[in-house]
Design goal:
There is one protein chain. It is built from three helices and no strands. With 77 residues, the chain is mostly helical. It has one domain. Helix 2 packs parallel to helix 3. It starts with a helix and ends in a 9-residue tail after the last helix.
Protein backbone atom coordinates (compact mmCIF):
# COMPACT_ATOMS: atom_id res chain seq x y z
CA UNK A 1 0.00 0.00 0.00
CA UNK A 2 1.28 3.46 -0.86
CA UNK A 3 1.05 6.29 1.63
CA UNK A 4 -0.32 9.72 0.71
CA UNK A 5 3.08 11.43 0.90
CA UNK A 6 4.52 8.96 -1.60
CA UNK A 7 1.55 9.40 -3.93
CA UNK A 8 1.79 13.20 -3.70
CA UNK A 9 5.41 13.13 -4.90
CA UNK A 10 5.02 10.38 -7.51
CA UNK A 11 5.22 12.85 -10.40
CA UNK A 12 8.60 14.04 -9.10
CA UNK A 13 10.07 10.55 -8.93
CA UNK A 14 12.18 8.71 -11.46
CA UNK A 15 9.68 5.86 -11.76
CA UNK A 16 9.34 6.52 -15.47
CA UNK A 17 12.70 6.46 -17.22
CA UNK A 18 13.55 6.31 -20.86
CA UNK A 19 14.57 2.72 -21.69
CA UNK A 20 17.88 4.10 -22.98
CA UNK A 21 18.67 5.09 -19.38
CA UNK A 22 17.86 1.72 -17.80
CA UNK A 23 20.83 0.09 -16.09
CA UNK A 24 19.40 -3.36 -16.86
CA UNK A 25 17.98 -2.45 -20.26
CA UNK A 26 20.31 -4.80 -22.12
CA UNK A 27 19.15 -7.85 -20.15
CA UNK A 28 16.59 -10.25 -21.67
CA UNK A 29 12.97 -9.14 -21.40
CA UNK A 30 11.11 -10.16 -18.27
CA UNK A 31 8.48 -12.88 -18.15
CA UNK A 32 5.76 -10.28 -17.75
CA UNK A 33 7.02 -8.33 -20.78
CA UNK A 34 7.22 -11.55 -22.82
CA UNK A 35 3.64 -12.54 -21.97
CA UNK A 36 2.14 -9.10 -22.64
CA UNK A 37 4.18 -8.57 -25.80
CA UNK A 38 3.04 -11.94 -27.18
CA UNK A 39 -0.57 -10.91 -26.56
CA UNK A 40 -0.06 -7.55 -28.27
CA UNK A 41 1.68 -9.19 -31.23
CA UNK A 42 -1.23 -11.60 -31.65
CA UNK A 43 -3.74 -8.74 -31.54
CA UNK A 44 -1.73 -6.67 -34.02
CA UNK A 45 -1.10 -9.73 -36.20
CA UNK A 46 2.67 -9.18 -36.22
CA UNK A 47 5.55 -11.53 -35.48
CA UNK A 48 6.75 -11.89 -31.90
CA UNK A 49 10.50 -11.42 -31.41
CA UNK A 50 11.62 -13.39 -28.35
CA UNK A 51 15.18 -12.02 -28.53
CA UNK A 52 14.36 -8.46 -27.42
CA UNK A 53 16.06 -6.87 -24.44
CA UNK A 54 14.10 -5.30 -21.58
CA UNK A 55 14.50 -1.85 -23.11
CA UNK A 56 13.60 -2.98 -26.65
CA UNK A 57 10.59 -4.92 -25.35
CA UNK A 58 9.37 -1.82 -23.54
CA UNK A 59 9.64 0.26 -26.71
CA UNK A 60 7.87 -2.45 -28.75
CA UNK A 61 5.07 -2.68 -26.16
CA UNK A 62 4.58 1.09 -26.41
CA UNK A 63 4.43 0.87 -30.22
CA UNK A 64 1.94 -2.00 -30.22
CA UNK A 65 -0.23 -0.39 -27.56
CA UNK A 66 -0.51 2.68 -29.78
CA UNK A 67 -1.26 0.49 -32.80
CA UNK A 68 -3.86 -1.69 -31.07
CA UNK A 69 -5.33 0.96 -28.76
CA UNK A 70 -4.67 -1.33 -25.80
CA UNK A 71 -3.18 -0.16 -22.52
CA UNK A 72 -1.53 3.09 -21.67
CA UNK A 73 1.44 4.44 -23.54
CA UNK A 74 2.40 6.71 -20.64
CA UNK A 75 3.92 3.97 -18.48
CA UNK A 76 7.17 2.08 -19.10
CA UNK A 77 7.11 -1.73 -18.99
Amino acid sequence: MTDKATQAHAAESNMEKDPDDWVTGDEPMTGAQRSYLKTLCEEAKVDFDDTLTKADASRRIDELQAETGRGSTSARH
